[in-house]
């Protein structure tokens, strides 16, 4: 089968190769990959900024169809439509594993970095890590279950948005657009901010339910934002850009005892006004990947249309054109770029 493999350091260490199909073990299922999204983490792996065990097939955001169920598998049959957890190999005995906090296990290995992932025609995962896709959710939409589950983890499981809350989201990329919809589903009134280059993204934010959008770089944007809260400040800020200035704006724009939710990764150390956060008694929340409950909630949000992802799927590219797909993702063209292993070379 065709697979995109990170073999050695650097961009040149990523190759498309023909490898043998993965074989199935006890309690495992073999999945034909429908599509796999390119995520910021994949870009970090390519640039050697995120840990990986080479050689490894990349890709962790995917949907697919079961083609074979191993001995011991009772819950899945061939033709079932599925997604799966990313942390599929853990010790199973540490205190975090026992609490279901798989991503915090020291032994955690995730698909696409520690074990073979979904930029391939087939993937094998433990059946216990898989979830059936509800009938009303398309295979394309289900590719975004993983990033949506990350948002659920941060915004609903670690953080909280209450009905009526004034919420500000900084960074209108894929994660920001998902956070907007999750905050809104929880009853928040959401304002989305971006920069001049985000004009189209801010327009989509309005379509997806933001009650206002503001270009951060425009003169008087701080005053405008504060006036949207009657100068009281926001109850919740969700930082999705991973930009130092945006983090500091969030702390400034929050009300006293407001909640800051850090979703964006900065990729480096940043400075922020800790004393201001202290004097305002800001609750500082973040989240690392997902836990099994995040997936159940994410699929429910998709099933009942609280979160719409179709407009966030910008580019669908055959695996043969994987270099073009990576280019689109690295240059942030649109939102999500999805690699389709079954699309023929054209
Ligand atoms: Zn991801
Ligand atoms: Zn563990």
List keywords for this structure.
alpha/beta, Quinone Oxidoreductase, Chain A, domain 1, 346 residues, six-stranded parallel sheet
Write a structural description.
With 346 residues, the chain is α/β, with parallel strands linked by helices. It has 2 domains: 2-144 and 309-340, Medium-chain alcohol dehydrogenases, catalytic domain (Quinone Oxidoreductase, Chain A, domain 1), CATH 3.90.180; 151-286, NAD(P)-binding Rossmann-like Domain (Rossmann fold, 3-Layer(aba) Sandwich), CATH 3.40.50.720. The protein has 11 helices and 18 strands. The strands form 4 sheets. Strands 3, 5, 6, 9, 10, 17 and 18 form a 7-stranded mixed β-sheet that branches. α4 crosses α5 (174-185) and α4 packs across α10 (292-303). The longest helix is centred in the middle third of the chain and has 14 residues, at 145-158. Bound molecules: zinc ion (2 copies). One zinc ion binds next to α4.
Helix content: 25-40%
What is the N-to-C succession of helices and strands? Answer: EEEHEEEEHEEEHHEHEHEHEHEHEHEHE
How many independent structural domains? 2
Helical segment tally? 11
Number of strands: 18
Question: Mind telling me the CATH class of the largest domain?
Answer: Alpha Beta
* Shape descriptor: globular
**Which class best fits the helix and strand makeup?**
alpha/beta
The unreliable regions are none
Mean pLDDT: 95
Short description:
The protein is α/β, with parallel strands linked by helices. The protein has helices at residues 40-46, 95-98, 139-142, 145-158, 174-185, 199-207, 221-227, 244-253, 274-279, 292-303, 322-330, and strands at residues 2-6, 14-18, 28-37, 56-57, 61-69, 81-84, 87-89, 109-110, 122-126, 130-132, 166-170, 189-194, 212-215, 234-239, 254-262, 283-286, 313-318, 336-340.
């Amino acid at each position: 089968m065709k697979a995109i493999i990170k073999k050695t350091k650097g961009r040149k260490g990523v190759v498309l190769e023909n490898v043998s199909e993965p074989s199935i073990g006890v309690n495992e299922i073999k999945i034909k990959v429908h599509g796999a999204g390119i995520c910021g983490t994949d870009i970090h792996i390519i640039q050697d900024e995120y840990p990986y065990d080479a050689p490894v097939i990349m890709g962790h955001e995917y949907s697919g169809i079961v083609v074979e169920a191993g001995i011991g598998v009772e819950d899945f049959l061939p033709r079932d439509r599925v997604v799966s957890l990313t942390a599929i190999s853990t010790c199973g005995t540490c205190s975090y594993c026992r609490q279901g906090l798989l991503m915090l296990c020291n032994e955690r290995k995730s698909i696409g970095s520690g074990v073979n992932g979904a930029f391939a025609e087939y993937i094998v995962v433990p059946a216990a890590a898989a979830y059936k896709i509800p009938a009303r959710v398309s295979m394309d939409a289900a590719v975004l279950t993983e990033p949506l589950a990350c948002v659920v983890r941060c915004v609903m499981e670690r953080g909280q948005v209450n009905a009526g809350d004034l919420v500000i989201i900084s960074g209108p990329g894929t994660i920001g657009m998902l956070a907007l919809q999750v905050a809104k589903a929880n009853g928040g009134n959401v304002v989305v901010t971006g920069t001049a280059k985000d004009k189209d993204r801010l327009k989509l934010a309005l379509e997806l339910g933001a009650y206002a959008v503001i270009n951060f770089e425009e003169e008087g944007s701080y005053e405008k934002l504060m006036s949207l809260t009657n100068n009281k400040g926001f109850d919740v800020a969700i930082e999705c850009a991973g930009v130092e200035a945006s983090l500091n704006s969030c702390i400034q724009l929050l009300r006293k005892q407001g909640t800051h939710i850090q979703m964006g990764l900065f990729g480096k150390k940043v400075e922020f006004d800790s004393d201001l956060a202290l004097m305002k008694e800001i609750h500082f929340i973040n989240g690392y990947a997902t836990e099994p409950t995040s997936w159940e909630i994410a699929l429910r949000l998709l099933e009942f249309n609280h979160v719409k992802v179709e407009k966030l799927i910008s580019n669908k590219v055959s695996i043969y054109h994987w270099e073009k797909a990576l280019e689109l993702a690295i240059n942030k063209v649109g939102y999500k770029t999805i690699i389709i292993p079954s699309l023929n070379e054209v």
